[in-house]
């Protein structure tokens, strides 16, 4: 109890005062040490044990694997007496490899297993998804002789975490067709897919299914519901669920703040940010990114600068996305020189998104002089790194808007010389539950 409640000193004190100890006591103390990364202390107790059970070996292997030391974990695995090496021992070692991204070693050991349980299949599927090897993850799923819900959840969540939300929803439908009842993990994943795709109607159907199936509304499901409604623009429902939650974590606050920011309700985003600061939950990097974005779209320059400076108070280091939001904030409000000076002072090399924010502001405010300075600084030969045409099209449009047609055409020539195609504009709309792409011949 003390070890699991993070008081390892009290745990050891009770252990030392025990008049008599057995293997269960020793396993509990070893597990406590390993949980808190006291690897040497766990090893000393392990070496002193005269009678070890399969639990002892599993605790040690799992503990070292979780700490990232798969070499030591494998050494212990190889030392397990044959009569104590069961399917769980094998699974823990395979999972240790997959958790550390060592998929080749995991696959080799997986192939050697005398028998497999459902968890080791899921561990392999999740491991391949973490490495973005979608093909191998699906191939592993297809090989499972008898699937259970955990295997389906690994497939669905893997697709969604890799941005393949349509495939995640398709797998969810197939899972239902095979008569598997979804649980909290399933619903959290499919709600995330709906959020990313903006499928409000599908999200509402999932919400109804949750209520109908009497699924326990734990924090993961509630966070997913808030996120789905917020991202899909139904902020009334998102706020209603949020206000009824007893305990709110970072993810929940961030979902609301970002939802308000995305859908132009900037005052509400700032209000929720103030509420979050006065609660027990600390803002994180994502929180500040969402609030700065809200300030940029709402034109709250002073508030945005103040909020940016608050990151230091929470011991958070601003990354290039935070600086990009600040450039966008200054640029939109017409403070183009300040935005350009900020870019020059940034502790990072500005990327395409940062330059794009400034160039977009130059277009809005018609400042071709600053555009010329940017081009001189960067040089047209290596201006942008992504190979995307958007910045060159933007430059061309800026010059065209100020009737400088010769310079506008020169940007098109640069694109042609670099072999950068001008991609046609494209929009997507939902017809029923099917996404349809609508192209255009020009931007």
From TrEMBL:
Keywords: Repeat. The keyword Repeat applies. GO terms for biological process: RNA modification. It holds the Pfam family E_motif. GO terms for molecular function: RNA binding. PPR repeats lie at residues 22-52, 86-120, 148-182, 249-283, 284-318. PANTHER family: PENTATRICOPEPTIDE REPEAT-CONTAINING PROTEIN (PTHR47926). This is Pentacotripeptide-repeat region of PRORP domain-containing protein.
């Amino acid at each position: 109890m003390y070890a699991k409640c993070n008081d390892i000193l009290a745990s050891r004190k009770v252990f030392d005062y025990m008049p008599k100890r057995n293997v269960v006591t020793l396993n509990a103390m070893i597990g406590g040490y390993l949980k808190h990364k006291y690897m040497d202390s766990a090893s000393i107790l392990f070496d002193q044990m005269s009678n070890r059970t399969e639990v002892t070996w599993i605790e040690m292997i799992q503990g070292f694997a979780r700490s990232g030391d798969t070499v030591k974990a494998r050494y212990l695995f190889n030392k397990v007496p044959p009569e104590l090496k069961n399917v769980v021992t094998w699974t823990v070692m395979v999972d240790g490899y997959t958790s550390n991204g060592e998929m080749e070693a995991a696959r080799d050991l997986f192939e050697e297993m005398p028998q497999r349980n459902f968890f080791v299949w899921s561990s392999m599927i999740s491991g391949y998804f973490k490495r973005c090897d979608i093909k191998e993850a699906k191939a592993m799923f297809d090989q499972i002789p008898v699937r259970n819900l955990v295997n389906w959840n690994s497939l669905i969540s893997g697709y969604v975490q890799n941005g393949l939300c349509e495939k995640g929803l398709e797998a969810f439908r197939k899972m239902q067709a095979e008569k598997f009842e979804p649980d909290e993990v399933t619903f959290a994943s499919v709600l995330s897919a709906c959020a990313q795709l903006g499928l409000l109607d599908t999200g509402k159907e999932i919400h109804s299914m949750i209520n109908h199936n009497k699924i326990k509304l734990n924090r993961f499901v509630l966070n997913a519901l808030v996120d789905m409604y917020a991202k899909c623009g139904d902020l009334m429902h998102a706020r209603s669920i949020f206000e009824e939650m007893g305990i709110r974590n970072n993810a929940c606050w961030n979902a609301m703040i970002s939802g308000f920011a995305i859908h132009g309700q900037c005052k509400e985003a700032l209000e929720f940010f103030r509420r979050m600061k006065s609660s027990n939950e600390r803002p994180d990097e994502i929180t500040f990114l969402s609030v700065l974005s809200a300030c940029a779209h709402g034109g709250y320059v002073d508030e945005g600068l103040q909020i940016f400076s608050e990151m230091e108070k929470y011991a958070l280091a601003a990354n290039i996305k935070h600086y990009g939001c600040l450039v966008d904030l200054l640029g939109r409000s017409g403070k183009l020189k300040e935005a350009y000076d900020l870019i020059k002072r940034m502790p990072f090399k500005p990327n395409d998104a940062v330059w794009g924010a400034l160039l977009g502001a130059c277009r809005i405010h018609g400042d071709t002089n600053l555009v010329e300075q940017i081009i001189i600084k960067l040089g047209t030969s290596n201006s942008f790194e992504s190979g995307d045409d958007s910045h060159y099209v933007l430059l061309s449009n800026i010059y065209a808007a100020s009737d400088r047609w010769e310079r506008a055409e020169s940007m098109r020539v640069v694109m042609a010389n670099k072999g950068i195609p001008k991609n046609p504009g494209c929009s997507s709309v939902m017809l029923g539950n099917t996404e349809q792409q609508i192209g255009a011949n020009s931007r």
